[in-house]
Structures are given as C-alpha cells and as structure tokens.
Automatic annotation (TrEMBL):
One of its GO terms (molecular function) is carbon-sulfur lyase activity. It comes from the Bacteria. Belongs to the Gfa family. This is GFA family protein. Residues 5-119 form the CENP-V/GFA domain. Keywords: Lyase, Metal-binding, Zinc.
C-alpha cells in the first residue's frame, strides 16, 4: 500500500512504520530545532495510533519545554520525534524515511530564529513565528 511508510534512525536500532496519509513536511528554524539538528527540523506528522515503533527502548525523550518532548536515538543520536503533550499526533523527522518518501516541504516556521549561516531560498512560504493553526510550543504569526 502506498499509504504505508517505513523508516529508521542512522544505526537502525529504532525502526518504525506509519499507516495512512502523512502530513506535508514543515521546516522549523527555531533555536531548539537548530541546536538539536545542527540545521533545522523538517518533519511530517501522523496520528499516534498510525505509528508503530520497533526498538522503543533505544529512544531517549528529552523535554525541551513544558509543552512537548523530543525523542532521539540514544545510540546514534538521530533526531526522531517531536510530540506535544496534548496532541493526538506525533511529528516524525522526514530524513528518517526510506527513500523515495514522497514527502515535500510545504513551508518554513520560526524563520526569525533561523541560524545566520544559511539562507532559505526555495520560494516556499516563510513564517516569522509559528503558522496559525499549527500546534507548536511558541507563538504564531
Ligand atoms: Zn540509532
Ligand atoms: Zn523548532
């Protein structure tokens, strides 16, 4: 089924499968995402019930805010998931998916906090803060 996607962290200790349609990819340039990834966070999103994780014991959950947790592989360090406490959905890093993923970045958020060592010139919408209607830890434009 084209509605199933698989992926894994760099070392393969954490594997996952998603069911159903994946959200468009959102690129987040906030300082937390910059520090965690070294660049920016690019993630899709799926209902928690549509995500099956294998190797969950290799995931460390870091609470970067009172609002949400970030999951990463404690062996290879790959950034994996972002999940808000109140959410029924979980964000998954686009780079983890087996290729071709069929995923596309749709827009950029928290561009005001972007690192000064790169530019975003893909012509997609750029929000200074969050995008209205998108669940994030910070304010929206
Ligand atoms: Zn790993
Ligand atoms: Zn961010």
């Amino acid at each position: 089924m084209s509605d199933e996607h698989t992926g894994a962290c760099l070392c393969g200790s954490v594997r996952f499968k998603t069911r159903g349609k994946l959200r468009e990819v959102v690129a987040c340039h906030c300082s937390q995402c910059r520090k965690q990834t070294g660049l920016y966070y690019a993630a899709t999103n799926v209902a928690r019930e549509n995500l099956v994780i294998e190797g969950e014991e290799a995931i460390t959950w870091y609470r970067a805010s009172t609002f949400a947790r970030r999951g990463f592989c404690k062996i290879c360090g790959s950034a994996l998931f972002w999940v808000a406490d109140s959410a029924d959905e979980i964000s998954i890093m686009a780079g983890l998916f087996d290729q071709p993923s069929g995923l596309k970045i749709a827009y950029h958020i928290y561009c005001a906090d972007k690192g000064d060592y790169y530019e975003v010139r893909d012509g997609l919408p750029q929000y200074r803060q969050g995008r209205p209607g998108l669940l994030t830890a910070g304010p929206s434009d």
